[in-house]
Design goal:
The protein is mainly alpha-helical. It has one domain. It is built from 21 helices and no strands. α7 packs parallel to α20 and α12 runs antiparallel to α13. The protein is globular.
Length: about 425
């Protein structure tokens, strides 16, 4: 069966990731493996790889991802992240709002292990500056859950996240439209967090809330690079790579004027960050992987097998992304590895929107539950939380998220009929 060949390749991909092989290299190996398993000669694999790697959409994707990595690195090196968080902590008098707002705001900035960055701020607000009703400090599991959950509410619908960008690129759906249609997932994530996580969280007023007007002004100044990116991209429809590079220029200027960034540190952000090279390789590997799947006949054979055995396309869209997300803990990993297969069954363009939404939310649920997810492991370790209790507390919010994804799948599927 063609499906068994693809599952074999995906198992090999997960195995490579388990032994710490970079995702880009693992996807290149998976692409070559699929090509050989479906009978493509080496010369054809090389030809398709070159065509896919040199296409303008691939180059644009690589440039955008690199710009995002550089912007995040520069903001961390200049202390912008810390200033944003400190200012946000002074904007809210209700510590429950601040507890959720800080990781939510940090979540607007795509960065690996971002939950660990916001964890000390949640710790200070929860225990350092105030006491819960009854005199006992907020439990470790509650703090870990607040930090982890609200850190990830934007990843379904924020156009700066590489997973969303890649999903839009592979499905040929404009990233703005995809983000808008998946916005209900972020809204439900926030509401579920408020109802099922924050509702029973009782913390007294904290000393971090000071002059709110001054704190708000500082926050807007520190957050200005992200505001610029958002305004250019969503308001003026400037290409995303250029938008992010504009934010990079602003951060460089802030760092130079404030003497918080040396020329050497700036050079390291551009050329000394290993993640920059990894994300370039990943962008090319993802597009090559999809191109080889399409060119070697894997798409047609897999589709025929699924039809022959009566396996529904909806099941593929749910199961494959969830499993790969659970095993890898990386959003861009399950999108890059499974979306070429999922989209082969649904097509691309606007008609694929219901399937894209369902596959994305299924994969992200797996990512949120994955022990390999850096944010989950680092948050639990920081707060010394019991992982099983954190998992149990996430169950109901995750059910609501999945139900929202299925509802959107049905809604947009009906509209497209």
């Amino acid at each position: 069966m063609a499906l068994l060949k693809i599952l074999l390749v995906l198992a090999g991909l997960i195995g490579l990731l388990k032994v710490k092989c970079p995702l880009g290299l693992a996807l290149v190996a998976a692409a070559v493996g699929i090509g050989f398993l479906f009978g493509a000669p080496a010369a054809e694999i090389a030809r398709v790889s070159w065509i896919e790697a040199s296409r303008l959409p691939t180059l644009d994707l690589a440039a955008t991802l690199v710009a995002i990595v550089v912007l995040s690195d520069l903001m961390q090196r200049t202390g912008q992240f810390r200033r944003i968080s400190d200012a946000a902590g002074g904007m809210f008098r209700d510590p429950r709002v601040a507890l959720a707002a800080l990781p939510t705001l940090i979540g607007l900035l795509p960065m690996p292990g971002g939950a660990l960055f916001s964890a000390p701020l949640v710790e200070a607000l929860a225990n350092g500056q105030g006491q819960p009703a009854g005199g006992e400090r907020l439990g470790a599991e509650r703090k870990a859950l607040i930090n982890y959950w609200f850190r990830h509410v934007w990843e379904y619908s924020w156009p700066l996240y590489p997973g969303v960008i890649l999903a839009a690129s592979l499905s040929h759906i404009h990233v703005n439209y995809l983000c808008l249609t998946m916005l209900p997932l972020s809204i439900v994530a926030v509401l579920a967090g408020v109802v099922f996580i924050l509702r029973d969280t009782k913390v007294q007023a904290n000393a971090l809330a000071g002059n709110r007007l001054l704190a708000t002004g500082r926050f807007l100044v520190y957050f200005s690079p992200i505001v610029l990116v958002i305004g250019l991209f969503l308001g003026l429809r400037v290409p995303l790579a250029i938008c992010v590079l504009s934010g990079v220029v602003i951060v460089l200027a802030i760092g130079a004027l404030g003497k918080t960034l040396s020329l050497r540190e700036a050079g390291r952000a551009f050329f000394g960050n290993r993640e920059t090279y990894q994300v370039v390789l990943l962008a090319f590997a993802v597009m090559v992987f999809g191109g080889i799947i399409r060119s070697c006949g894997a798409v047609g054979q897999t589709t025929a097998d699924l039809a022959r055995y009566g396996f529904p396309a909806m099941g593929v869209a749910i199961l494959l992304p969830f499993v790969v997300g659970l095993m890898t803990g990386i959003t861009i990993g399950y999108v890059g590895a499974t979306f070429p297969i999922v989209l082969a069954l649904s097509g691309t363009g606007p008609e694929a929107l219901p399937t894209v939404i369902l596959a994305f939310v299924s994969g992200f649920l797996g990512t949120l539950l994955s022990p390999a997810h850096l944010c989950l492991s680092s948050t639990n370790q920081y707060f010394k939380a019991n992982s099983l209790l954190v998992y149990r507390a996430m169950t109901v919010p995750l059910v609501f998220l999945f139900a929202t994804g299925v509802s959107l799948f049905v809604l947009y599927g009906v509209r497209g009929m």
